Amino acid sequence: MSTNSLTSTTKLREYFAKLPAYKANGTNWIFFQDCFFFAVDTAGLSDYFDDGPTGMTSEPTEPQVADPTKPTPEEKEAFKQYPLIKCIWKSEQAIIKQGIASVIPDSLFLKVKGEKTAKEMWNKVKAEYEKKSKMVTVYMQRKMQDEKCPEGDVKAHLTKLQTIREELIAMGTNPGDENFVAIVLGSLPASYKTYLSALTGAVCCIS
User: Fold this and answer.
1) Confidence band, pLDDT 50/70/90 cuts, at residue 4
2) What is the pLDDT of residues 147-169, one digit of tens each?
3) In this structure, are residues 175 and 183 in contact, taking their beta carbons and an 8 Å threshold?
4) For the whole model, what pTM was predicted?
């Protein structure tokens, strides 16, 4: 729950309005997930994703009184604060849910909109896209390995491979420098073999 009582609902909504739109194919899942939790932390709402003793994943329950006929001052104060605490919990839950809803496809929104809490809604989004992200990762890795450079268009080819690599990194899968170099060299036309042999030989001599 937001610890700053002066933080307005409008201000909280601004944090989530800055989230990047999630790509339907899952290629920016890692980036999107990081941005989402940066927004959550900045807004002071990380407790809504914490299952620990101080977490706020569940709706606040009505305070219990040991003796209803003789409530203590602490119990009276707890009862007094309870409506406000519950109202804030519902309001901030709604803000997070709206933040999620504003950046996911309509088709996914229809699947997750019925979840009671923001965390449950997020977990469902996460499960959907982590599965999709894995499938896309396999496809993109295979695509990068299968790419072949046509004669006379090396610059465009290298740009394409670098773009695929950056997308893989954004999805949490870094092919690594050595592997990427091997893929690049293996994708070049046969006419480059003589030049590459001389270049790699020179590199070996230097190292």
Assistant:
1) very low
2) 888 877 788 888 888 888 887 88
3) yes
4) 0.65
